[in-house]
Write a structure and sequence with these properties.
Rossmann fold, alpha/beta, 9 helices, 2 domains, 7% strand
Length: 211
């Protein structure tokens, strides 16, 4: 697009606290309502499509896809496309406990015939604790980085050939250079997909607002 240029970007989000009340109770219809509320506010100021970097709330995606007045990119489908193009067969899924035990990535990977595996329950609880009590508060202890690598190494031993970093903050902790498995950074992949979508040649001049 030229020096210092990028598509217009508008953002809206409700406080995480509002989301967590419904996520913890498994009330995904209310999660969807919050997502739709953000999308409609952005659509009203000209956004033409929406993205959400939060992996966990994509469990409500099927509830909002048809109801939204603007289309959305699905983070799991974006990651699945990348995993398929790179020839991965079995992915370790790392994220919140809600994501790891949920359908977001298994459903997205089906069309590519890619298997998904998750850490055991004790590991899931510890990963979830690190995400919410440390990473979400800007705390990145070395011991937590080493713990993630230990879990990922065990997933490699169980047959995984890549790991999905399925939480926005995890790439701030896990270093691809010393990670035991190739990494799929869901946040970065979604951002690139959004840029590609915004720059489609068939969009009218001035288009490209994204959430």
């Amino acid at each position: 697009m030229g020096e210092y240029m990028h598509p217009e970007v508008s953002m809206h989000t409700h406080p995480l606290r509002k989301y967590m009340v419904h996520i913890r109770s498994g009330n995904w219809s209310e999660v969807a309502a919050l997502m739709l509320s953000s999308a409609e506010k952005l659509a009203s100021i000209g956004a033409q499509f929406a993205i959400c970097p939060d992996n966990t709330i994509h469990q409500a995606f099927n509830l909002i896809a048809e109801a939204s007045t603007i289309p959305w990119l699905h983070i799991g489908e974006v990651v699945a496309g990348e995993a398929g193009s790179r020839g991965f067969n079995t992915l370790a899924i790392i994220g919140t406990k809600y994501l790891m035990t949920g359908p977001v990535y298994p459903s997205a990977m089906q069309q590519y015939g890619i298997d998904c595996r998750i850490p055991d329950e004790a590991e899931r609880e510890q990963i979830d604790r690190i995400i919410f009590s440390e990473l979400g508060n800007g705390i990145f202890p070395e011991k937590s980085r080493l713990y993630f690598n230990t879990v990922i190494r065990r997933m490699k031993d169980k047959g995984c050939d890549a790991v999905v970093l399925g939480c926005t903050e995890i790439p701030l902790l896990v270093n691809p250079e010393d990670c035991p498995l190739p990494t799929l950074d869901s946040t970065k992949l979604l951002a690139r997909a959004a840029l590609k979508e915004a720059l489609k040649e068939d969009q009218p001049a001035g288009a490209g607002d994204a959430y």
